[in-house]
Design brief:
Length: 246
């Protein structure tokens, strides 16, 4: 039997796909999120399907003062942790955010500051333990600022750099940090958005995430072809890029 994994943002589609892939491999799970009734439903489903221990609890990414106590409760409930999955995210309304700072603040707080707070607590625990892993879901949106979602992209870009720094810090302690950069995935966050193409299923993304962890990867794009798409986008000169409607 594999060790316990904390899945943060467990009601999201990608988190559920990742949790299923972990449970399939025998990991016990603790599901963290804001919707207690949905967490309970997912926990029962995973327990029945994979016959692993699944517990759950409410956590808010922006309630920074509660994060340490939440993690202590998780560790006590599960008898320790092997790893953590960060899948909390908020796309927000980029047009509304231009004139309403409360929306900007929420986008940054959920996607970046909350991750720094919660994953900071998890990192300290795993570093002290001298083993384990952190999986952080960033986004291809963080690779380059585009007018359509640069608030979200800036927060995710900051998250990618934070995870890179954690990877550098935790490597000597034997703790792996895997950065995931999803492209378009069939989730509630992307439902109905214009211009989507080559949309991946959450189940396939979750399986690829866990497979990448098993291969000790550092950064992956999912689906894989987004690596090449973003490579091309990053190579466009700024003098040309600023003229594009992206």
């Amino acid at each position: 039997m594999s060790g316990a994994v904390l899945v943060l943002g467990a009601t999201s589609a990608i988190a559920r796909g990742t949790a299923a892939a972990l449970a399939r491999r025998g990991h016990s799970l603790y599901l963290g999120g804001r919707d207690e009734s949905e967490l309970a439903r997912i926990a029962v489903d995973l327990n029945i399907r994979y016959q692993v221990k699944v517990r759950y609890g409410v956590v808010d990414a922006t309630d920074y003062a509660a994060h340490r106590l939440f993690l202590e409760r998780v560790i006590e409930t599960m008898g320790g942790l092997e790893g953590v999955v960060w899948a909390i995210g908020y796309l927000g309304d980029s047009i509304f955010a231009q004139t309403h700072f409360e929306e900007t603040e929420k986008i940054v707080a959920v996607n970046f500051t909350g991750a720094v707070s919660l994953l900071g607590e998890c990192a300290a625990y795993l570093e002290g333990k001298g083993a384990g892993f952190i999986i952080g879901l960033s986004s291809v949106a963080g690779d380059r600022g585009r007018q359509s979602n640069y608030y979200y992209g800036a927060a995710k870009g900051g998250l990618s750099l934070f995870l890179q720094g954690l990877r550098n810090r935790l490597f000597p302690a034997g703790v792996r940090v895997l950065t995931i950069k999803p492209g378009f995935v069939d989730t509630a966050m992307t439902f109905g958005l214009p211009g989507l193409f080559l949309v991946a299923s959450p189940a396939s993304v979750g399986e690829r995430i866990v497979a990448a962890l098993e291969r000790s990867r550092d950064v992956i794009y999912v689906p894989w072809f987004w690596f090449y798409i973003m490579f091309i986008i990053r190579m466009i000169p700024e003098s040309l890029f600023k003229r594009l409607k992206l």
